[in-house]
Design brief:
By secondary structure, this protein is an alpha+beta fold. It has a domain of 166 residues. 37% of the residues lie in helices and 11% in strands. The chain has a 4-stranded antiparallel sheet with strand order 1-2-7-4, with helices on both faces. A hairpin with a 2-residue loop joins β8 and β9. α1 packs antiparallel against α4.
């Protein structure tokens, strides 16, 4: 910049603020973000949608979705002094993303949502956002900011939509016409009155593939997802038993679900990630269910170190795999016998919640 911003930004020339906004986007790209936008704080429309969703109980056991009140939809209540939100996007799709759906048909494998195959995105994006804030600080001096990456009551998709990074699709994920939806989001709450970007417009049209093909019918209508039916919720957020009527619909999905992204036409434009930290780890990528089920808690912690998967804990991991083993379609009697043996061998050493899922899995194999 030609001159540092005034600490009293009310007297800062608009052209200086516009120049800073352009520089921030450039710095963001240099740090590995695939898109950077700036949003204002008006989330009134999204607040109404959230309140209606919560009133219907569609958040299930995710109590954190309502315990912060309006701080989620009013950024200045969460961080006093916030005037704008810098929203960033980072692609995570592995090179074989177009073939990943085929793994769902290989019932002997454990399918992990593609976002969780590499390093925990919370760590990656948070570190880069802090670097971006430090770069701004070098340019203009001290300013107020806070970094968020799916780590606080933040309406990240709504803010990203306002920042022009994409639109919220009928499946509730953010979509971009040039890269689809295989990306992470992060935010930098700032006290600078930067010029805002034009909000993205919706391009879902009459398409309803995500609604029609959701395995559990969790997308109950356009832009309405009942988390209590969603496989991602059931395998990640839920700590108790998975409802019996839904278990057979999980297939071999042991951590999350990507089906609504697989069927979305916009994902034909998906871009392979440029971030080495998101490279899939061999220990958890499309491994045989029996091998994953055999992990002790120590092995689980070792193989998921630095991974988003670790947060569900070993018990939920075993629960999910037990359900997948119950859904498996063994190629022969020897494979079926191996599954039954693994379930029976593990049964005495797990808690009551996991044991109940093991018993269900054994029932599926008529034991």
């Amino acid at each position: 910049m030609s001159a540092p911003l005034s600490k009293n930004t009310a007297t800062t020339p608009p052209e200086d603020l516009a120049q800073l906004a352009a520089q921030i986007k450039d710095w963001g790209k240099q740090l590995g973000f695939d898109a950077v936008g700036i949003a204002d704080l008006d989330l009134q429309e999204h607040e109404v949608h959230l309140q209606n969703w919560l009133a219907k109980g569609m958040h299930g056991d995710m109590d954190y979705m309502h315990k912060h009140g309006t701080k989620r939809t009013r950024p200045a209540e969460l961080v006093a002094g916030t005037r704008r939100v810098i929203s960033v996007r980072m692609d995570y799709a592995p090179p074989d993303i177009q073939q990943a759906e085929e793994k769902l048909q290989q019932t002997e494998l454990g399918y992990v949502s593609r976002y969780a195959l590499g390093r925990d995105y919370h760590k990656v994006l948070r570190a880069r956002l802090k670097q971006l804030a430090q770069r701004i600080n070098q340019e203009i001096g001290e300013f107020g900011y806070r970094v968020f990456t799916d780590s606080a009551p933040v309406m990240e998709k709504a803010l990203a939509e306002k920042a022009g990074l994409g639109w919220i699709g009928k499946h509730s994920n953010l979509l971009d016409s040039k890269t689809g939806s295989w990306f992470f989001l992060g935010e930098l709450y700032i006290d600078l009155p930067l010029p805002v970007d034009t909000a993205a417009t919706n391009h879902c049209g009459t398409c309803s593939r995500c609604i029609d093909l959701c395995p559990t019918g969790a997308i109950i209508g356009p832009y309405q997802v009942d988390a209590r039916l969603c496989i991602s919720y059931l395998t990640i957020e839920l700590r108790g038993p998975i409802p019996v009527p839904l278990r057979s619909k999980l297939g071999n999905r042991i951590y999350g679900c990507d089906d609504c992204q697989f069927v979305c036409p916009w994902n034909k434009f998906a871009r392979t990630t440029k971030e080495p930290d998101f490279s899939p780890r061999t220990a958890i990528t499309d491994r045989r269910l029996l091998a994953l089920f055999d992990w002790s808690e120590e092995e689980f912690l070792k193989h998921t170190e630095g991974s988003a998967i670790r947060r569900i804990g070993h018990a939920s991991w075993q629960r999910n795999i037990a359900v997948a083993l119950g859904n498996a379609n063994p190629a022969d009697d020897a494979e079926r016998a191996a599954i039954i043996s693994a379930l029976k061998d593990r049964r005495p050493y797990v808690d009551d919640m996991v044991r109940e899922h093991i018993d269900w899995a054994l029932d599926q194999h008529q034991v």
